[in-house]
Amino acid sequence: MFDFFQKLSKIGKIFLISAICHGIFLIVIEIVGVSTDTSDYTGFYSALFFLSVIFAAFFAFIVVTKKNIFQLGSFGIANLLLIFYSVYEFAHTRNTRLYFLFIVNCLFLFFYGYMIYQLYKEFNWEFWSKAGTTELMQRLYKFWQLFLNFVGLDLMVNITLLIGAMTFLFDKDDYEGYVDLIGVILTSLWCWLGYWAYKNETKKWTIVFLLLGCLEPIYLIIKLILFRVQRDTKSKYSKPPIYTIDVLIALALIVRIGLSTFTILGYKNFGQGLKDRLSKNYVPQTAPQTQKLVQDGNDEDEKTTDESTTDSSNQDV
């Protein structure tokens, strides 16, 4: 089960262990906070913390096991969100626990900055070697990896947004909480559809993926407008956590644009060899080249032998 851990480099092991320990520490602190804090917003921010910690650990695992240098950016964004949550919640609750969390997260962020730099140097060559030597294949492989990166970010931001909104806005007499819950399931299925369609270069389903991807941004923009209209009232939309939801909506829209962009770039290059390279049965075509080198070597030996024979004949004469 832990064979993969033994295969990791020293830097990879330190990075993964640090991310796991950091996550466990934050979860414990948040559990304590939920049981002791009297703020009405503790449950909302705790849900955001838990989800960001889980996704940060997931991104760290992908980085060290798949040696995906682009996922280093996703890991950094997840940790920046943790700092944002602690700062914003502290501004509205003035809980000293959050001040402590902010300092710890900042210290870990500086440490992660150094680790990310070291991992990038270690994984960079091996990461690009998987793409092959041609410029075309390297470009296609980059599009694929950036697509995966944005899929992970999209999943993180949208699930965090939907669950956060559900914990803050949920009312048994209001349909909105149920819509958010269904949205979590549909978002997960949508991301899986995009992964499958892109990897198998299925144009029809890739188009379906892109079209479905337009639905949530439309819904989010409508909700954002409604939030602004109802913010002056004394409804739930005027409470402080609504601004955090605004930030998450903006981030979700940016990530969705990035995901759609790299999906389109990949779609335009379907059929140029990426599907075969991503296949588990892919075998680099080195045999013909090796055979040519061997043949060239034999020809050179024969040429040398002929020259030696000619020289010997000249000496006899």
UniProtKB/TrEMBL annotation:
Coiled coil: none annotated. Residues 285-317 are annotated as: Disordered. The chain crosses the membrane at residues 12-32, 44-64, 69-87, 99-120, 146-169, 181-198, 205-227, 247-267. Residues 132-264 form the DUF7789 domain. Pfam families: DUF7789. The keyword Coiled coil does not apply. Keywords: Membrane, Transmembrane, Transmembrane helix. This is DUF7789 domain-containing protein. The lineage of its organism: Eukaryota, Metamonada, Anaeramoebidae, Anaeramoeba.
